[in-house]
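Fig. S4 source data, part A: sequence.
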Amino acid sequence: MLTLAFDTATSVATSALVREGEVLGERASSAVRVLADVEELLEHAGAEPRELSRLVVGTGPGSFTGMRMGVAAARALAFALELKLAGVSTLDALAAGAPGALPVVDAGRREVFTLVDGAPAAVSPHELRLERGTTCVGDGAVRYREALEALGAEVPPRESELHLPRARFHAKLAREFVDPGAVEPLYLRLPDAEQAR
């Protein structure tokens, strides 16, 4: 079984090609490059798009534009290849890459997307209730390092792989494959344009 997974919800887009749990290749770049990354992954593995058996996409929360691009690209690929699609939360993928850590994604507007009582939420990083020593990972943890460390959190160095929602974890976490049109981004709040109205 050949699985293609990608996530474009954060400042760094990730993609992975996985066969039977073995990672054949990974890329980290920008949302606008994700389809080029996919093409390179398939070429490097000597595989054709028609050989894919599963598609997985990160559903956020994260950048509104990034999520829309990723989900639209995943839907288009799934429709073209006649495959079902699975959506996996970007927060869940970050947590899978750093077991026991709290995923924190930059939400803009001086907020972060994270888990509050186990549910995704958009909050000010200063309002988080953290146990001392909690490890925080993600681009939001990097951006708000000072505020999180003041609350007693530990944030790995900026260069740490733990801050990337690696697509290999999306492939691992995918459970429910559905019609591509049924996979929706996890927004948690209105887009900036609607908020301004």
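Fig. S4 source data, part B ends here. The radius of gyration is 16 Å.
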